[in-house]
Amino acid sequence: MTSALDTLRRDFGGDIIEPGDAGYEAAARSRLVAGSPAYVLRPKAVADVQAAVRFASGSGLALSVRGGGHGFAGFGTNDGGIVIDLGALAGVEVVDGGAPAGDGTHLVRIGGGATWGQVADALAPHGLAISSGDTRSVGVGGLTLSGGMGWKVRRYGLALDSLVAAQLVTADGAVVTASADEHPDLFWAIRGGGGNFGVVTSFEFAAHPTTRVFFGKVSFPATEAAAVLQGWADYLRTAPEELTSIANLANPFAGGPEAPVEIHVAFDGDDADAAEQALAPIRRLGTVVADDVELMAYADVLVEGATPPPGVHVLAHDGLVDQKSVPEALRILAEAGTSSGSPSIAVRSLGGAMSRVPGDATAYAHRQAELMVTTFTGGPAPVIEAHRPALDALWDRLAPHLDGAYANFLSTADETDVTSVYPEPTYERLATVKRRYDPSNLFARNHNVRPGQMS
Ligand SMILES: Cc1cc2nc3c(=O)[nH]c(=O)nc-3n(C[C@H](O)[C@H](O)[C@H](O)COP(=O)(O)OP(=O)(O)OC[C@H]3O[C@@H](n4cnc5c(N)ncnc54)[C@H](O)[C@@H]3O)c2cc1C
């Protein structure tokens, strides 16, 4: 290890942080999960990532690759291993010299450790945006590599649907470009297969022109939850694709089971009449108790993510719902969300542009899902354990009505989760690509695909 460490120190131009060093405590943890890695490596250039990957590969230690560090499963850190923290690779650059593609998009290059807040701020002066997520501090890396459901998902699809190319450092330390023309198998795999295939040092996206958007929430009494949710889902099926929406129930900061049902809306456009028309059916869903929808800059729509205090854990779980199961799933959620002991529940409407991409075009396979259900439970370990029976009971009831899961809102990554994230044909194809680019499974801290056997 000493000579490997000497080689790393010689070749690595970034920061190497070890236990006892100044800043180690903060560097060791990912945003949601504490850790005690032996080395946190902060590359400043692609060559540093190559040196870090070679060091990790020879060390036999666990390797975490950290983008924005927001993964619920805590893959962005570990105990006793190596963390490659990409936070210094965060450049955002419009690279087409102002010449849009035929569809009006502009090519944007983004460092593998950038956050969506950095992207939104950098693109706002150009009048551009990328369909991403709802939170500034979430990483472009983790969100994109597994999907990316944000406030433009019904209009422009998942974040990975806007990806044009990526540069990766693979397990052997090589720098590889993945795109439709170069390493197309890898390009397919990184659009849904998470961090299984290498360290993405930069992403190239097709960014869309954006105006200001109508954004806010329309709230209804908890007692109307069942009718509001069903009406909401029915309407979203035919609503304009400029409208993306999330329904929240049982918000712990607004009364838990008595909290209003909040229908969060983003209308992607600044035409007040069109927005009014799109939002009118939402406002007719029940007795409106609050309505704060207003026109704002897209960059202002994204919220800052909170870092939980030491000892506080966040348990997230999700499942995808196809059209046929929507009524029953929503009935169960409305009942659970208004009972005591409910977790916080969020239901995202999908469909639109996302659903028009063929299921095998990318490694994100669940294009048919109409809704994504997520629950969140937070607190010290005893609080989480106290909530677990109600949580398990809710997911047991939902199970027959779910068809797959989305990797990015799962705190767990066991075999069942991996099977839910990747349907069998997707997994088999990913395993073949994994064998080619990471045969020793160096990149294992993710919803892991094991290298396929030679046939
Ligand atoms: C507050 C909050 C809000 C969220 N909102 C949304 C939302 O609106 N929509 C949505 O779809 N998801 C959302 N998510 C989920 C989010 O997409 C996942 O947590 C995602 O994994 C975070 O990515 P990250 O880079 O910040 O995390 P990390 O923990 O750094 O990484 C997560 C995984 O991706 C891998 N990875 C990250 N970057 C790279 C890279 N450059 N190269 C290779 N592998 C990499 C890591 O190794 C790890 O396996 C939210 C999460 C939080 C905590």
Topology:
Elements: H1 2-11, E1 15-17, H2 24-28, E2 39-42, H3 46-59, E3 63-66, E4 82-85, E5 92-94, E6 106-111, H4 116-123, E7 128-129, H5 140-146, H6 153-156, E8 163-169, E9 175-179, H7 184-190, E10 199-209, E11 213-220, H8 225-238, E12 243-249, E13 261-267, H9 272-283, E14 290-291, E15 294-296, H10 298-301, E16 313-321, H11 326-337, E17 344-349, E18 371-379, H12 381-398, H13 415-421, H14 424-437
Parallel strand pairs: 2-4, 3-4
Antiparallel strand pairs: 1-2, 5-6, 6-10, 7-10, 8-9, 8-10, 11-13, 11-14, 11-15, 12-13, 12-17, 16-18, 17-18
Helix pairs in contact: 1-3, 8-11
How would you describe this structure to a colleague?
- The chain has 455 residues and is of the alpha+beta class.
- Helix content is 30%, strand content 22%.
- The protein folds into 3 domains: 13-86, 2-Layer Sandwich (Uridine Diphospho-n-acetylenolpyruvylglucosamine Reductase, domain 2); 92-209, Uridine Diphospho-n-acetylenolpyruvylglucosamine Reductase, domain 3 (2-Layer Sandwich), CATH 3.30.465.10; 213-417, Vanillyl-alcohol Oxidase, Chain A, domain 3 (3-Layer(aba) Sandwich).
- It has helices at residues 2-11, 24-28, 46-59, 116-123, 140-146, 153-156, 184-190, 225-238, 272-283, 298-301, 326-337, 381-398, 415-421, 424-437; strands at residues 15-17, 39-42, 63-66, 82-85, 92-94, 106-111, 128-129, 163-169, 175-179, 199-209, 213-220, 243-249, 261-267, 290-291, 294-296, 313-321, 344-349, 371-379.
- Strands 11, 12, 13, 14, 15, 16, 17 and 18 form an 8-stranded antiparallel beta sheet that branches. Strands 5, 6, 7, 8, 9 and 10 form a 6-stranded antiparallel beta sheet that branches.
- α1 (2-11) packs antiparallel against α3 (46-59) and α8 (225-238) runs antiparallel to α11.
- The longest helix has 18 residues, at 381-398.
- It is globular, with a radius of gyration of 22 Å.
- Flavin-adenine dinucleotide binds next to β3, α5 and β10.
- Residues 30, 65-72, 75-76, 86, 112, 133-135, 138-139, 141-143, 145, 147-150, 194-195, 199-200, 305, 408-409, 445-446 line the site of flavin-adenine dinucleotide.
